[in-house]
Amino acid sequence: MKANYRNLFFLVGIALLVVMLFSLDMSWREIWANVCHAGYWLPFNIVLWAGIYLMNAASWYVIINDKEHARVPFGEVYRLTISGYVLNYVTPLGLLGGEPYRVMELSPYVGRSKAASSVILYSMMHVFSHFWFWLLGVVLFLIVYPLDWGMGILLGTIALVCLLVIYFFMKGYRKGLVVKTLRVLSYIPYVNRWSERFYERHAEALHRVDAQIAALHAQHKRTFYLSLGLELLARVISSLEIYVLMRILTPDVTVVDSILIMAFSSLFSNLMFFMPMQIGAREGSIALVSERLHLTAGYGLFTGILCRLRELCWIVIGLILIKVKGHKHE
Q1: Structure confidence at residue 19 (pLDDT)
Q2: What are the domain boundaries of the chain?
Q3: Residue 266 and which of 2, 14, 139, 258 are 20 to 30 A apart at CA?
C-alpha cells in the first residue's frame, strides 16, 4: 500500500478515536476508579486479547496461504488482523474501513484478486462464527436455566434466525456469494445504480472471487472447518474476560454464565452495528443480560466499562500497527 493511503487510514482512525473518547458518558474520575478496582485484571485482559487476535489471525492465515500462492508471513497477517479490526471498531457500520485496508495491504503479496477473495472469505467466516456462537448460547441456556414462555419465544426466534443464516451461508460458500449479493442490491433503491455499475466494471474479477470462495469449501474442507473452528474458539475464550472481571465483584458467576453473557450481549450490541464501537449498546446489553441471569445489572455495567477500556487500549495499538510497514510495500 502507498504511504499516502496508509497515512489516510491512520489519520481517520485517530480522528474517530478522539470523537469516541469525548463521547464516553463517564467522567475521567469514574473511569480511573473502575481501573483501580479492576487492578491487575485489566492488563490481564489486554494480554488475553493478544491471544484471541492470534487465533483470529490463524483463522485468516489458513485461508490466505494455500499451495497456489506465495506465502504471507504470519506476523504480517497478525498485524493486519489487529489493525483491520481497529478500523472496523471505529468506523460507523463496521467493515467499511478494515476490509479495504486489508485488501490494499495484502495485494503486494498475493495480487488484488486473491487478496480480495481471502478478505471476503475471512469476513464471511468471522460473521458465520457469530451465528454458531449465538446458537451455542441458546443451547447452553436451555441446559442450565429454567425456561418461561417469554424466554422460550425469544430463544426460539434467535435459534431459528441463526439456523436460517447458517443455511444461507453454506449455500453461499458452495456457489459463491459476491455476485448474488450485488444482484440483490440491484433491487434496493439508492444503491441499485451503484451495484449495477460496480458489477459491469468488475464482472470478471467478481466471478473469479466467487470461484475462489466456492473452491475453499469444495476442495479445501479441512481449511474451511479449521478456520471456522479457530474463529469459534476465539469467541469462547473471549468469554474469560467477562468471567474474570465479574469474579472481582461476585463469586456467583460461572464460566457458562460468562459465555451466555458474551453470546447474547454480542447479539444485542450487533443490532446496533451502525454505531462506532457500538457505544453504549454493549455496556447496556451486558448489564441487561447479566440481570436476566440473576446477576446484578451493576456487575454487568462495570464489566462492560472495563471491556471498553481494554478495547480502547487495543485501538491505540492497532493504530500504531497501521504505521508499521510490511516487507513487500511500495
Answers
A1: 53
A2: 3-322
A3: 14
